[in-house]
Structures are given as C-alpha cells and as structure tokens.
Amino acid sequence: MVFTSFMEQALSEARAAAKRDEVPVGAVVADAQGRVIAAAGNRTRELNDPTAHAEVLAIRAACAALGSERLTGCDLYVTLEPCPMCAAAISTARIARLYYGADDPKSGGVGQGPRIFSHPQCHHAPEVYDGIAAEESEVMLRAFFLHRR
Ligand SMILES: [Zn+2]
Predict the structure, then answer these.
(1) Rounded to whole angstroms, how far apart are CA atoms 79 and 133?
(2) What is the pLDDT of residue 147?
(3) Ligand 1 center from residue 84 Cα (angstroms)
(4) Is 114 within a domain?
(5) CATH number of the domain bearing residue 134
(6) Fewer CB within a 10 Å sphere, N or C end of the chain?
(7) What is the pTM of this model?
(8) pLDDT-based confidence at 123, cuts 50/70/90?
(9) How far apart are CA 112 and CA 107, in angstroms?
(10) Residues catalogued as catalytic
(11) The predicted structure's pLDDT at residue 38
(12) How far is the CA of 53 from the centre of ligand 1 (A)?
C-alpha cells in the first residue's frame, strides 16, 4: 500500500532524528502524483530553533521544491500527532491529507488539546487519518525518552 511506504520513510526520518539526539519524529510530503517531494526529521536542537519540527521542515522543503507557498493536493505523513504550531502550518499550506502515527496526549493539537482543524478560524482542514504505524512510532519515542532520563 502506498501510504504504508510513505509512513515507512517518515519512520526512518524519525530514527535518523533519534541518532542525532533529537526527539524521534519524522515527516514526508508527497505530491498529488504520489511522489515524495520532501522528507525531514526534528532538528530543534541542531538548529537551536524551537520551530524546527519535522512537519515544518518538510513543509518548507516541499514549498521550496514546488516554488509555491501552498501545497495544494499534497499529503503529509508524520510519525506523531502534530502539535498546534504544526497543525496551523499544515492548514496554511493547504495540505490535502494528513496521515499520522502515534497520538500525542502531551503536545498534540489535532485529535486532542486545541484541535486546530475544528476551529472556525481554521480556513482549511485536511482529511485526517490517524493511528498509522502508531505502535512503531510510540516504541521509538518511549525508548528515546527512557534513554534520556
Ligand atoms: Zn510541531
């Protein structure tokens, strides 16, 4: 299945992030033809940038690749439920479909917390598919935080 392989690539970005001592989250943007146009993992520590979440970096790279401020018709795959900041960026980028893995009870902003996409001020909501390869993502996150404490 196509989306499984995209999530597989997002998971490998997450694994690479963990190796850089970053929170293991990975994201992939695929265009309307199903081609990967950007992939990224968290780099907040490396870049000293609290906004350098995997989703933001992948969206920036995808926009640069397309030469557009919008990603109309594109899909985003991310291993963890996006936070409110990333959810707002996903909306602003006009992402068509969001596929994510594990829920994030602590910082998630899609299925819980502020539920960004259901706000009246949210002008574009993607179709959302959650729980994709969630277990693999959760295991990775748990191992990472266990290691750091
Ligand atoms: Zn985020």
Answers:
(1) 8
(2) 83
(3) 7
(4) yes
(5) 3.40.140.10
(6) C
(7) 0.95
(8) very high
(9) 9
(10) 55
(11) 98
(12) 5
Q: What is the mean pLDDT of the chain?
A: 95
On whether residue 119 sits in a domain, the answer given is: yes
Give the model confidence (pLDDT) of 54-83 as tens digits.
999 999 999 999 999 999 999 999 999 999
Query: Minimal CA–CA distance to 144: which of 1, 21, 8?
Result: 21
For the chain, what is the domain count? 1
Q: Classify residue 121: in a domain, yes or no.
A: yes
On whether residue 60 sits in a domain, the answer given is no
What is the chain's alpha carbon radius of gyration, rounded to the nearest angstrom?
A: 14
Start-to-end C-alpha separation, the chain? 37
Report which of 85, 89, 83 is spatially closest to residue 103, judged by C-alpha positions: 83
Pure H helices in 1-149:
2-19, 44-47, 54-66, 84-92, 134-148
> 86 a known binding residue?
yes
Nearest to 101 by CA among 1, 2, 19, 8: 8
Q: Is 83 one of the annotated binding-site residues?
A: yes
Q: Is 74 annotated in some ligand binding site?
A: no
Domain span at residue 87 reads: 28-52+69-147
Non-local CB neighbours of 92 within 8 Å, separated by 6+ positions:
124
